[in-house]
Amino acid sequence: MGRVHKFLELQLWVVYFFAVQAIFALQKIYRTLLRIDRIPEGHVRLCSIVHRKKRDVEEIARGMDFLSVHNSFVPTSLLDGSHWTLYCLTKNTAYFVYLPKPVLWYNSQRCPFVYVDYFKEALLVAEAPREEFEKLADELADRPQADTIFYTNTARCGSTLLAKMLHNEGKSHCVAEPYPIPCLTIGYAEGYLTKEDVTSLLPRVITILRKDVPADQVFILKAESSGVRLVEFTDNIPQFRNIFSFRKDGIDSCERMLKREEIGDVLTTLHLYLPRLTLWIFGYLAGHYLKNESRFLMPCIWFHDLIHNTEQLLREIFRNIGIPEETALEAMKWKGEDSQKGTFLSKEALQHIEIPPMTAEELTEMRQYAEAMEIPVDTLIKAEKP
What we know:
This is Sulfotransferase. By secondary structure, this protein is of the alpha/beta class.
């Protein structure tokens, strides 16, 4: 019954999706009649939020997450305010949200998945044409910028814990998983965005996301799992470096995460017909790290070291990214806590899920995947004893 219920929920979401598209079409007609369909140069469209809904809060951020109505046109410079941040973007439009608290309040210690807080707490939405978005970012880029660490990773590698440790008031500011990043990675992977689009948009997205961080602090931008796809585009971004973390033999943990809801079974069934759906889960991303290894500030940060050699690892990371090494002792207070407590990925939410052992056929398949992705076999499964 669980799978049937989730399948019905998915169908209802499809109905809602098309209903929203119809409302957007009517809005466009209404705006055309009132001659407010075009946003004046130097301005953005300010909208009041009437309703907000996502099928799953974890899904990629989109403009349609908010059913909103036109309020007024305001100068683009308004988006430089301390309560405004970039929510998501398309090929032609950037969506900003106005938050009840300053953007810097939403750090990785308070918000392990900041896109959830942005979605739930947004008070207003601003639509910026791409030209205005780029112009704003270029103006902000002329100001002093914080040194930035792009922290990419894969699922279940302790990245949420490390992100909490990387945030140190007055020294470093870490934000965890703002969704403009997957808008670029997934848009590029699916052919919606071109290589030229990503090359142009990524530096500007970074500038917008770090606009509120003091220039004398280190800004750590923790991406979600697909973020490593963007590393090849970061060579010419000023004051920008990369780090990466991974967990060997993490398949069971990833499977447990995917099976947290019955919808996971529905989606894995769809995978038989749409295999590209699961490209982003695990080893594929590790392959991207290996192919771009020279672009990273330091060697891969391993889950095992984060758990068992915490202080030594933190000191090495802090030394490399420019945070005083002694800060590691304070950061270690997060060790032992459930870094995802209260979220959909907490230990409590996942502990009841059982994972069956792999069959011989599945183990053979994993070895074939590793060979195809050009990664070590023990990236996916435990190394065989000689």
